Amino acid sequence: MDKFLTKNKVKDRSKCAVNVSAKNRARSMPQVLHEDDGILFCSICNVSIDHTCKSTIDNHLKSKSHLKRKHEIDSEQSTKKSLASGSAAKQSRVEVITDWIKACTVADIPLEKSDNPALREFFHKHVKNGGAIPQSSQLRDSYFSDVYENERTLVKQKTGHHC
């Protein structure tokens, strides 16, 4: 008789799907799911999902369409990151070049010394972004005038004179 009584036991209410709201499901996976007006949505695919059955959610997350869309979004984000890092690399490169021009100017070193093979090897080996320093002709043509104008402006500001 005890055998039959165990079958009629009331199940644990926390495991019942009717007690799980769309908001609770969304909280369990906030980066993938969101809730709006009691309806559960996949944030990646922007489709509604039945929140009462966890297997429905799991099946959607494993579906080809969801995985394809997620891959597309990840690719877009990685492209944006690489573009941002590319601009940071360019900024770092320009900073090394302008600092080199300033150092040469202050130390009264001709920019042609940048073409020396031993100095170029030293740059590549020991200076971060040292390979970014171009030949002297490009230093003069592309960067020197900007460095000169910036330094001239700084001198004007410090001295209060207008040249």
TrEMBL record:
Q: Name one GO biological process term.
A: regulation of transcription by RNA polymerase II
- State any GO CC term: nucleus
InterPro entries found in the cross-reference section: Cggbp1
One annotated GO molecular function:
double-stranded DNA binding
Annotated region (Disordered), positions in chain? 68-87
Q: What is this protein called?
A: CGG triplet repeat-binding protein 1
